[in-house]
Amino acid sequence: MSEKNPSPQTGKALRLRRRVKGKKPRFVRPESWRYVRLKEGWRHPRGLDNKVRKSFKGWPPLVSIGFRGPRVARGLHPSGYKEVLVYYAERLKDIDPKTEAIRISHTVGKRKRAGIIAEARKRKIAILNFRQVKETAPEEEAKEEEKSKETEPEKKEGTDEVAEEEESVKEKKTKRQRRRRKE
Q1: Mind listing the pLDDT tens digit for each residue in 116-151?
Q2: Are strands 100-104 and 82-86 parallel, antiparallel or unpaired?
Q3: How far does the chain reach from its first CA to its final CA, in angstroms?
Q4: What is the model's pLDDT at position 2?
Q5: Which are the contacts of 81, defined by CB distance < 8 A and separation ≥ 6?
Q6: Contacts for 115 with CB less than 8 Å, ≥ 6 apart
Q7: Among 58, 57, 63, 68, which Cα is nearest to 45's?
Q8: Which residues lie closer than 8 Å to 49 by C-beta, 6 or more apart?
Q9: Using CA atoms, how far apart are residues 169 and 166, in angstroms rounded to an integer?
Q10: Using an 8 Å Cβ cutoff, are 15 and 70 in contact?
Q11: What is the pLDDT of residues 77-123, one digit of tens each?
Q12: What is the predicted pLDDT for the residue at 106?
């Protein structure tokens, strides 16, 4: 359910952000290329003699405010909408479909998710993490329950035999242990 950019101004800002990001270096943790134990995730260098912190020539640049993206494009989704996290359908009343799009929280269940999707479609709101919800018909559920009931007695019989075997093995072990203690 993705639509075009909401306004030409945001489209221009997104293009500018893409261009600026292309020139920005890939910031990795200093010395992560040298030691396997250091992950590449950025950490600010704090050592007294750290070359990156001191901005020595030949070392990667330090993260600074100058590498920030354009103000207009900050917080925008690549589609051009501002993201809003939604937990329930009533929250959709406050959303402007021209500039905002929703992201349904991962904690929302199947039933509420279906309600949120239906309400968003009515209001023509873009959904960023839309996925099809598969719902089974009541007839199919009844058939599945019947199949599971038929197979359950077979499982129980098999589990009883296994339990009896386990008990006999335990008894044999305890007998062996008693013999060893006597010796």
Answers
A1: 999 999 999 999 998 765 665 566 666 667 766 666
A2: parallel
A3: 78
A4: 46
A5: 6, 99, 100, 101, 126, 128
A6: 89
A7: 63
A8: none
A9: 5
A10: no
A11: 988 899 999 999 999 999 999 999 999 999 999 999 999 999 999 99
A12: 94
pLDDT of residue 167: 75
- Give the closest residue to 16 by CA, choosing from 70, 65, 79, 80: 70
Residue 71 corresponds to which tokens in the numbers above? 């103000």
Residue 61 Cα distances to 25, 39, 52, 55, angstroms: 8, 18, 7, 6
Q: What is the spatial distance between Cα 86 and Cα 178, in angstroms, rounded to a whole number?
A: 65
Residue with tokens 């242990």: 177
Residue 182 has pLDDT above 60, yes or no: yes
Reading the block at residue 136, the tokens are 């089974």
DSSP state of 14: H
Q: Which residue has the tokens 């993260």?
A: 63
